[in-house]
Write a structure and sequence with these properties.
Shape: globular
CATH superfamily of the largest domain: Vaccinia Virus protein VP39
Radius of gyration: 20 Å
CATH topology of the largest domain: Rossmann fold
Number of strands: 9
Distance between the termini: 42 Å
CATH architecture of the largest domain: 3-Layer(aba) Sandwich
CATH class of the largest domain: Alpha Beta
């Protein structure tokens, strides 16, 4: 089984504008596809690769030019300081869940398998989807599904979950799927269930907060003319990245100088998002929602 097919590989590597002697970060190592391509463009340069999933270590490339860090990318600045790196030439991140996670029946990421409600990318973490579904209040669940999943009938769904768990703990993806199917039409089942599972996955792994921390830390680390290359898969992530690249802050608030010129730490390399072409989507259907944005530090 392929661990993960790298999405927008050519476009993201070109976007990094790699210097063969440069220092780069692959913030989401996964199966090592993007890292391998970065190394192909390095000579005396070095690559630091992050991944919090212990299983990703099994894909580690045997190359003296790569340092693997088994930790969340939100702590990129701390680990670079540990390795005595003050600045880097480029940072790449392929956000979201990997094909490996979706294809692993026992990890609880996919609703097509009946498994324990887990969804942890870092299996050392204690919080699971089962914990959230069975302990969050009605208000907390409603907010979670509305904000993380952009589910319109979040209150009704949350109310039903609370009713079911009073009778019996909700333990598996199959049990959660059965609840969700009552709140969508047949032709929207896959989309609706994906929204439910996405909302929980984001909460389990604290993905939105970690993304914000990562962006701030990465901006501090980049050298002038250094590139930020980020692939997102849903509107929440993409909105945060878009705002940050445009303004230099998470809220997207544009600052202007005395003369009305926009003050931002970045120059946008991609005025419009880059998306996979039809050929890539045909080969890898999971690439269909990918959006690539590239910014260069001023």
């Amino acid at each position: 089984m392929n661990y993960h097919t790298p999405v927008l590989l050519t476009e993201s590597i070109e976007g990094l504008a790699i210097s063969s002697q440069g220092t780069y970060v692959d913030a989401t190592y996964g199966g090592g596809g993007h890292s391998r391509a970065i190394l192909d463009n390095l000579e005396s340069g070095h690559l630091f690769a992050f991944d919090q999933d212990l299983e990703s270590k099994s894909n580690l490339l045997e190359d003296s030019r790569i340092t693997f860090i088994n930790h969340n990318f939100a702590y990129i600045k701390n680990f670079m300081k540990f390795h005595e790196i003050d600045s880097v030439d480029g940072i790449l991140a392929d956000l979201g869940v990997s094909s490996h996670h979706l294809d692993s029946p026992n990890r609880g990421f996919a609703f097509r398998f009946d498994a324990e409600l887990d969804m942890r990318m870092n299996t050392r973490s204690k919080k699971t989807a089962r914990t959230i579904v069975n302990t969050y209040s009605l208000e907390e669940l409603t907010k979670l599904f509305k904000e993380n999943g952009e589910i319109k009938n979040a209150y009704s769904l949350s109310q039903r979950i609370c009713e079911v768990r009073q009778q019996k703990e909700i333990r598996t993806t199959g049990e959660l799927k059965e609840i969700g199917l009552h709140f969508c039409k047949a032709h929207t089942q896959n989309k609706y269930l994906s929204q439910i599972f996405q909302a929980l996955r984001l909460e389990v792994n604290n993905e939105i907060e970690y993304l914000k921390r990562f962006l701030r830390a990465g901006a501090d680390l980049l050298k002038p003319k250094g590139r930020f290359v980020i692939i997102t898969y849903h509107s929440l992530e993409d909105r945060i990245v878009k705002n940050f690249f445009r303004s230099g802050n998470i809220d997207g608030v544009i600052s202007k100088d005395f003369y009305g010129n926009v003050e931002t730490p970045f120059t946008l390399i991609t005025k419009k998002i880059i998306i996979p072409n039809a050929q890539e989507i045909e080969v890898n259907n999971r690439a269909r929602s990918a959006k690539l944005r590239i910014a260069e530090k001023n």
